[in-house]
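Supplementary notes for students who missed Thursday's class. We covered one full example, reproduced here. Read the sequence, then the structure, then the short commentary at the end.
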Amino acid sequence: MSKPSVGIFGLTGCAGDQLVILNCEDQLLDIAGALNIRDFLMASSDRDAGCDLDLALVEGAVLTKRDEAALKRIRRRSKLLMALGTCAVWGGVAAMDRDADRSKLLGEIYGDLGAGYDSVPARALREVVQVDLNITGCPIEKEQFLSAVANLLNGDPPLFPSYPVCAECKMRENNCLLIEKSELCCGPLTVAGCDARCPGLGVPCVGCRGPADDANVASALAMFQGKSVPREKIAAKLRTFAPMPGDRS
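Structure (token representation):
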């Protein structure tokens, strides 16, 4: 049986998700042995930029016309496309100002040169092309990437948590920063998968993984209101990375 051909790509972003893949030190040779990685510029300049792919993994958001064109080319050559990381899945930090006047922002930052820059409001991959699979995270979790590869090699779709970070806090028996300390923690509305790393260290969740499908939004908002945290404040906090559940487009 031939190995599936894979390409790993980055649009506008920090390249942290690609770095997570390269940091799979103990499993990297197994990954390279199981997959025919044809196009991965961050790992090797020896790449086939035109071959057909069984799977394309794309990180970063669409922030330029060049990004959009590159993503459409990747989509045309790929049977499956996986959005890799919060920027790719939700738009990420760059999408915070997507409703602002773009030309004004460019002028404020770059002056007269701004008018000549290739810059458009940030979009998630799904807003430009069809996306078949998602791994969220800022950056993604190594274990989830390895699990996704193993599942796909077995012909199964990857399964990830849809419940909130709060569930992981309970499993770790963490003290609740929201209830006990009235800290603005986004755990009730953020999708799990990080093993509640930040709350486990006493740091409130900032929502970097994006919204949880199984979040009880009404209950969470009532709890925040009970702690004198208005909806607008929690929505603004979550908006750093993705929309609040219920506000999604």
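Commentary. The chain has a mean pLDDT of 94. The longest helix spans residues 65-76. If anything here is unclear, bring it to office hours.
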